[in-house]
Amino acid sequence: xxxxxxxxxxxxxxxxxxxxxxxxxxxxxxxxxxxxxxxxxxxxxxxxxxxxxxxxxxxxxxxxxxxxxxxxxxxxxxxxxxxxxxxxxxxxxxxxxxxxxxxxxxxxxxxxxxxxxxxxxxxxxxxxxxxxxxxxxxxxxxxxxxxxxxxxxxxxxxxxxxxxxxxxxxxxxxxxxxxxxxxxxxxxxxxxxxxxxxxxxxxxxxxxxxxxxxxxxxxxxxxxxxxxxxxxxxxxxxxxxxxxxxxxxxxxxxxxxxxxxxxxxxxxxxxxxxxxxxxxxxxxxxxxxxxxxxxxxxxxxxxxxxxxxxxxxxxxxxxxxxxxxxxxxxxxxxxxxxxxxxxxxxxxxxxxxxxxxxxxxxxxxxxxxxxxxxxxxxxxxx
Length: 382
Description:
Layout: H1 2-13, H2 37-49, H3 66-83, H4 86-101, E1 118-120, E2 123-125, H5 132-149, H6 152-168, E3 171-173, E4 178-180, H7 191-208, H8 211-226, H9 247-264, H10 270-283, E5 301-302, H11 303-315, H12 323-338, E6 348-349, E7 354-355, H13 360-380
Antiparallel strand pairs: 1-2, 3-4, 5-6, 6-7
């Protein structure tokens, strides 16, 4: 609990602002890329991978994070649920209202994207262009808010987000199911975004019972489950350029599949869930709880892997008696090795150096959400 209070204090002191791993294009060196995708990727990767805190020298400033506010909303809602202390409710409502005020405009429904331009192997992504990942994760926070507070505004936001998913995102049809695109302006086929979108649609369906939601959700989950590898893992995406298997995207897939099954009662994909969870639990962690980035090698420890692991094991604690002890083990290792005495969590631990840059959504928001989830499990088992 002390770790949560320290982190909350740090967030208050810094007005919810921090850096992001992929914020390189906010540098005043951005003009020398001439908007060339390869050059932009180089600048982003240079900033991302540099083990030293060069951002202030490049003109990159701490900022608010849309996805970070979504994760903080999750965390504050969990703290309110377990403590009933008004301060947590006040902060949760502040985050949700801020997200309502900062939606991306011009689409069929409520949606969210980065507050900065981005470029990756998948292409260039202008700021504010909404993604399925961000919209789905934030939509889940609004569903939590609706269930806790009964505020119809929050349910209306989620209804609206489902309109964005159904109307604005392209879909690719396959022999088994379909895949919802990561972004609205092209077909970008990625498993974690597809499954997160399915989870949002299916959980919303469980409340409003709109058939189109469950139809699309089932087709999306059918595609990704059909692509599951024999060992239980998923590639990030099916294109050759996306053939890697990492910790936190695997966790996203598992959380989404579990959400789908619970929301719909559809048990067809339960064997996929069990196989995927078994792979995740046995391949991504060392005995002391230290999380691995990739399943087959020790590359680095990333705070996102730690936070998502705690969250995922908490979700699975109802079904697996080993899950909550594993969540606690990961949390203890992370607090001991990656939390600064001022309260924030470090970005990464390399073999030779700890990268102590304070990321906002990537570290502070996800860890606050995860630790609050663990705290609620320890106190009330929910």
